[in-house]
């Protein structure tokens, strides 16, 4: 027998479950200001997430997908990106989006059933939320092709969940990125659940990271509860993408500490006590304990942060609740660059409905 | 001015526009060295290089999704699918993403893509190479569906489709690729989208059709002329959005309407046209409108396909039925 290839998947963790630094940690592990910034953002995301769930429960928001316990993945990836990079998110990426300049009230607007939640910023080049699972890594590959074609110094980040890796489009995106050597970083938020189905039912592969091997590039596994590892590895992957047009796959291993969405009930399928067992690894407390050990954080600072996050969230919730609805005719406004004559009659019908509504 | 075939007109239009606009990227399976299965992209690789003419891996959804990403980032992809029967893996990307990007982002992002595919029966091809399911796309808000019926239309409508700021599904009747030559001026002039073309004027009946069925309809009209029946032929060309006004004006004049398409009868575009005729010009009708269409069957393999396709005889029979009403 002749072995013609072997492969390995590296696992990266710098800050362990006990908030102890592991040897070989990157400079970020000692950059207290940067870590404080990451911590504050994670706490804001968790506060916002809790509020969004409450808004849904009280009928003020539509179906909403929680990010609880996955803050390090989304916040870390967002911090690692340059402003000029392009984000291709999926629907759970609130923590990344807010660092791209998206207002929290806009994110609420999206989940509250208003397309304007996808505008982000008028000049944003980031892609909107993608609801069909796994289709957006292909958009990232296409965007990366455009960047390479124009010889621009930037890269694309695509984020998806572990369930999305079962989709053909996911493989097709990886494959074409490998073949065409595209400046794209594929991030998997492996939160262990694809709605109700556990990770091991999605694939018999030992890691999701190894799926990159078949596409001809490096895949690595990262402790998705360790924001130092998430941020550092994403920064490194983006450097390679920008400078050498090397695609990379980053599997962030974390846990979904909530239902899939507010329309779901995880108690129907999630083993009892598992969430509690996983909670000891959760990313926010892990970084907080580390910062406390560095004498960079204490209870008074925590309380002040808690208050300021709550105030910030209150402001954006008010903004969201006060948003003037779109006119009915906006259904047609963005269908085509110019509304074809064929739809003018329907457009007029809708405008009449609007007049009657207000008349 | 050269006499060229429909497929040569496609190549000519692509080459003209690629020379004028370096954001145009042609991508698809075998579109590079091989020039595409029908040679529609022949010579483009040599002329424009490997960064603009991409032989992709064999994955149709990928072609659709890659084009979406390119278009959002400012390129103008022209994506080729080898046959309409192979476009279905890309439906998710075309329908869920390309068609919705402008609306989803309230105009912040958009998706100017041309999805090209040969379609239709009558070329004795294997299974899945003969479909005409244009209604799938015509049903999708946000898309344009354009179907040329001659070399000149192919040239002018493809230029217009590439220049359009929204996604266009451009379906090329494979039966007509090399059927006839026509003088086409390579002057970069586009034909208008969203309008029907009246191919010949008539007084007694309006025959509405598109794509390869224009051939049988024109032939049937010549035979009908000998009987003294004057037919007006409308080539729909853009089946979505539909220029119903031109059709209605003609039906108001002739009082009779037949829609001819090779796509299956049920829920075909003919159903939409007849429905609007019934709603809007019913009192002008001298006879019940009819559809002459493909059967509600899977397109049969080569030995039976000529019985599937609407023939001149079926068109003439339908006209005779309508002419019995005075």
- What letter string, H or E per element, gives the SSE order of chain B? EHEHEHEHHEHEHEEEEHEEHEHEHH
Number of helical elements of chain A: 14
What's the SSE pattern of chain A? EHHEHHHEHEEEHHEHEHHHHH
What sort of overall outline of chain A do the alpha carbons produce when their principal axes are compared?
A: globular
Number of strands of chain A: 8
Mean model confidence by pLDDT of chain A? 96
Helix/strand class of chain A: alpha/beta
Mean pLDDT of chain B: 97
User: In percent, how much strand structure appears in the residues of chain B?
Assistant: 15-25%
Query: What is the CA-atom radius of gyration of chain A, in angstroms?
Result: 21 Å
Major beta sheet of chain A, specifics?
Answer: 6 strands, parallel
Which consecutive residue ranges of chain B, at least 5 long each, have pLDDT under 50?
none
Give the chain pair forming the largest contact, with residue counts.
A-B, 46 and 48 residues
Distance between the termini of chain A: 82 Å
Oligomer: heterodimer
